[in-house]
Structures are given as C-alpha cells and as structure tokens.
Amino acid sequence: SLCIEILKKFRKLEMTQDELSKLVSTSQANISRILNKNIGNLSTDLLLRVLVAVRGKAKIDSASLFKKAS
Hints:
Blueprint: H1 2-13, H2 17-23, H3 28-35, H4 44-53
C-alpha cells in the first residue's frame, strides 16, 4: 500500500517526522498518521507530496476508478 511504501522509504532517509512535515508543509501529527496507516481524512495531495518527498514509487491504476459495479 501507499503507506507501507512511504514508511519503508522514510526509514531509509534517517529523518525525523518533524523534518518531513516541514518539507511537505504539514503537521508532524499528519506524518504520524500516515506512518501509522491512519489516513482516512488525509488528502490524496498530501499523500502524494509525502511519497515524492521520501522518493517513493507507486502505481496508480485510474481505470479501476471507473469500473462499474457488477
């Protein structure tokens, strides 16, 4: 998942949650939520900013967003 990728890359960077939060202009509490996979009320924009900041990769399959329910 996106959170796992962020966590994995974050650990390799050896930075603090506070440093990452300042880098992406959010609160340390939001970084903690992401690292603890508690992203229910966080924006996609924030998640992608954090992913880019930690040099992570993710595959986005937009086609699955438009599939009709059977």
